[in-house]
Amino acid sequence: MKHVETIFDRVLAAEDLSAQLLSL
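and the corresponding structure tokens:
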């Protein structure tokens, strides 16, 4: 289950990065 949490964290991080790029 830990592996799934790691993937989920990476997805959230990717969404945050995309939001920052769009805000530029």
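(Above: one complete record from the training split.) The chain has a mean pLDDT of 92.
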